[in-house]
Write a structure and sequence with these properties.
alpha+beta; ten-stranded mixed β-sheet; disordered C terminus
């Protein structure tokens, strides 16, 4: 069984192995054991409410219970830019015109901004290659939206994701080679690593504050602004299916796009509903296609758990599940759980909830 749960200290080895296998470009998860250990500690403090929840880091692990190890990770940064400045370029248009000369020129321009400050970010999505099938990536990503909505008071109304930009197999970014290197005098991989480990002061110290006119850059650099790495295209399509759209901001290093959505407009949130647990002795076939399964969440703040079960387990007022699944979710008969489609099939496979479906439970 595959179960989403909070990241734990004993996940460090698995997390480090996945980060190392991911290669360059995953800024939030560099293959640095010390940094990853600090992230795990910060996440644990957040779930245990040892720090302010609205300034916390929520990291979720996908555990293969049969293997007894972490095979994926995803996260939520409750607010960005509170401790360190969060930088982006805004892609806009500069217009120069002369009526006398009959000239009207529109120039695409990059402006350095901090527009996403105090906004919630979904981040750090990483899945072991052995488990990149069967809707596991959907589960790992979309479980965060269930958590965001259940505990919305800790997050901003708008949420965004910073997508990995274009780079080659050696980690070279066309935008960095044309722009960043001119001011930082270092390899893209080093700048990306320093940013990932939290050393971001050099960005403010060295980055040019004046607008960057894209026509002055080579074609190879202009072509990647707002584009994602080929390995990131599935993640982008998934977010677009959830209602995320490009907001005009790009990463200052590789030009990868930022996509955003309001929490209440996210598909998983809109199409979720609540049901009471009913323990069943009837065996459940978990080997179903993604479009025939739904996510089920225990709605716990501290001990968040999510797994999937077949759609036909959902009844008008209850959802039936075997005892083993209830134990994995840490729920009992009669508890209220949350359900949401695992995969977008073009129509909601479960009844779209009305306002009264959203019964809130106390934090457990």
């Amino acid at each position: 069984m595959l179960v989403i749960r909070p990241l734990q200290e004993n996940d460090l080895d698995d997390l480090h192995a996945m980060a190392a296998a991911a290669g360059k470009g995953l800024t939030s998860l560099p293959a640095n054991r010390e940094l990853l250990a600090r992230k795990i500690e910060r996440a644990r403090d957040t779930f245990l409410q040892r720090s302010a929840p609205e300034a916390g880091l929520y990291m979720f692990a996908l555990e293969d219970t049969e293997l007894g190890r972490c095979v994926g990770i995803s996260g939520i940064e409750a607010r960005v830019g509170l401790e360190e400045v969060f930088w982006n370029y805004r892609l806009s248009t500069t217009v120069n015109a002369s009526r006398e000369l009959g000239v009207h020129v529109r120039t695409p321009t990059l402006h350095l901004t901090n527009d996403m400050t105090d906004t919630t970010e979904i981040c750090s999505l990483l899945l072991a290659e052995s488990h990149r099938k069967g809707g596991n990536g959907l589960l790992l990503s979309r479980c965060r939206f269930m958590y965001l909505d259940d505990f919305r008071k800790h997050f901003s109304d708008k949420v965004f994701a910073e997508m990995r930009g274009v780079s080659d197999k050696d980690g070279h970014s066309p935008l960095w080679e044309a722009l960043g290197r001119r001011f930082f005098d270092m390899e893209f991989s080093k700048a990306d690593y320093l940013s990932g480990v939290g050393n971001k002061s050099f960005i403010a110290e060295l980055m040019p504050k004046f607008p960057i006119y894209l026509p002055l850059l080579p074609d190879s650099a202009r072509a990647v602004v707002g584009r994602v790495h080929e390995n990131t295209e599935p993640a982008l399509r998934m977010l677009q299916a959830e209602g995320f759209n490009f907001n005009g901001l790009v990463d200052i290093f590789d030009g990868g796009p930022l996509v955003e959505a309001f929490v209440h407009n996210i598909r998983t949130v809109r199409e979720s509903l609540n049901r009471h647990v009913m323990i069943s002795q009837k065996p459940v076939d978990l080997d179903r296609p993604a479009e025939e399964r739904v996510m089920v969440s225990n709605r716990s703040f501290r001990n968040f758990r999510v797994t999937t079960l077949p759609i036909d387990c959902i009844k008008p007022d209850t959802v039936s599940m075997p005892q083993a699944m209830a134990d994995a979710l840490q729920v009992e008969s009669g508890d209220l759980v949350r359900l949401a489609p695992l995969k977008d099939s073009g129509r909601s496979p479960i009844q779209t909830p009305t306002h009264t479906n959203y019964q809130r439970t106390a934090t457990r």
